[in-house]
Amino acid sequence: MELLDENIQSDVYRSMLEMIAKLGLSSYSTTIMTTIILSILLVIILYAIDFLLRKVLLLVLTNFIAKSKTKIDDLLIKNRVLQFATHIVPVIVAKEAIPLIFKGFPNWIKIAMQITDVALVIAVGLLFNAIFKSFRDFLRGNKSFSDKPIDSYLQVMNILVFFVCGILIFSIATGKSPITFLVSLGAASAVLMLVFKDSILGFVASIQVSMNDMVRVGDWIEMTKYGADGTVTEINLGTVKVQNFDKTITTIPTYALVSDSFRNYRGMQNAGGRRIKRSINIKMNSIRFLTEEEIEELKKIRMLHDFIVDRTNEINQYNVSNKVDPTILANGRRMTNIGLFRQYIKTYTYNSPKIRTDLMFEVRQLQPTEHGLPIELFMFTNTTVWNEYEVIMADIFDHIIAVVPYFHLEIFESPSSDDMRVIAEALKRNN
User: Fold this and answer.
1) What share of the chain is helix, strand, coil (3-state, %, to 5)?
2) C or N terminus of the chain, fewer CB within 10 Å?
């Protein structure tokens, strides 16, 4: 780097050069020393400008915003939007100062301007990122958007911003038009599709999930494939976070919500009732017709009294009108212990204040199996809270199991070791 003619040099550069020249250094060393010192001084001045803007301006604006009743300005402070905005000012000052200070050194100016241009692009990109975060937080506070996958859209916007910033930085560094880069990018689109496959799939899935209202933040979902059973806490571009009921976190690829099946309990929660669908298995060899004495005994059960009276009259009228032979129980119509038991369950649960009778309600027989005759309860509780639901269901089945002997029925259960021991001892005695 040679000492240039004074007419080409800026006043600042010339003054500093004259001061350094008094040290008795060579012309080349003086030029180098002057350039380095001015560069350092410029950096210090830019840092001072940035520092003053952040401390003074932000302090004033923060106090002003604190008095404001709006929420958006608080979010701007929280996400450091103003701080990133202040970083732009020193960069602009540097772009204006460098050509003036280093006039006569085109190569140095070119390099310095490239650095400042890159810094400006990065500063603007970070500013947009902070603005998007503030906008996201603002929408989260809005009830209309609180359950929407806002993070996914934020990530897409950030990707676009950083993509544009990357193209601009490449253009600045190479001195080529951004169009040239985009043309080259087209040739490498297959590679980019492979690299960003998950992001692209996640983006498309996020749009589908949002438009079709498949999943919202706060929904209880169950996805057995991924071991997820809990509340959705976050939906972003790549993953969906589910906090399971054991407080563990399961992450599910966003596109899996579209490609795979899962269960969403939102409908149940909106309805205000959770389904009970459980059976009790009755031994089929305990099912029989009831005698008159047993029917009279069951009349003492308050919930069955009126039903038994009405049904007895109905059966007697039918048998008399059809001249049924009462000596054979198979003739005509008779009451069975399983029929009265099923009616008792239906009446008992229907009158329970914790069962929703306005929703689907049924007590039915299922197909007999090797485990007996299933009597299924299909109904809804008046709450969706898990522990309350479990208590209600347990209380119902506690009662049902306890009243089974009153109907001369037996519950099927596989033989235990004690049962096998009793059978073995009986066989020994018989032998």
Assistant:
1) 60, 10, 25
2) C
- The domains of the chain, with CATH numbers, are 11-146 (no CATH), 170-264 (2.30.30.60), 275-288+336-417 (3.30.70.100)
Asked if residues 215 and 209 have their Cβ atoms less than 8 Å apart, the reply is yes
The larger pLDDT score, comparing residue 430 to residue 148, is at: 430
Asked if residues 377 and 363 have their Cβ atoms less than 8 Å apart, the reply is yes
Task: Specify the pLDDT at position 4.
Answer: 45
Q: Which two tokens stand for residue 299?
A: 């009349």
CB 68 within 8 A of CB 58: no
Strand 362-365 to strand 263-264: parallel, antiparallel, or no bridges (unpaired)? Answer: unpaired
- What's the distance, CA 293 to chain centroid? 61
Residue 344 φ then ψ, to 5° = -65, -45
How do residues 372-428 score in pLDDT, each as one tens digit?
999 999 999 988 888 899 999 999 999 999 999 999 999 998 877 766 777 777 777
CB 193 within 8 A of CB 200: yes
Identify the CA nearest to 214 among candidates 241, 269, 254: 254
Tokens 């601009």 sit at which residue? 168
Cα separation, 325 vs 319, whole angstroms: 8
Pick the more confident residue, 174 or 278.
278
Q: 230 with 220: CB under 8 angstroms?
A: yes
Q: Are strands 373-381 and 355-356 parallel, antiparallel or unpaired?
A: antiparallel
Q: What is the pLDDT of residues 283-328, one digit of tens each?
A: 999 999 998 899 999 999 999 999 999 998 998 898 888 888 877 8
Burial class from Cβ neighbours inside 10 Å (0-12, 13-18, 19+) for residue 102 reads buried
Task: Report if pTM > 0.70.
Answer: no
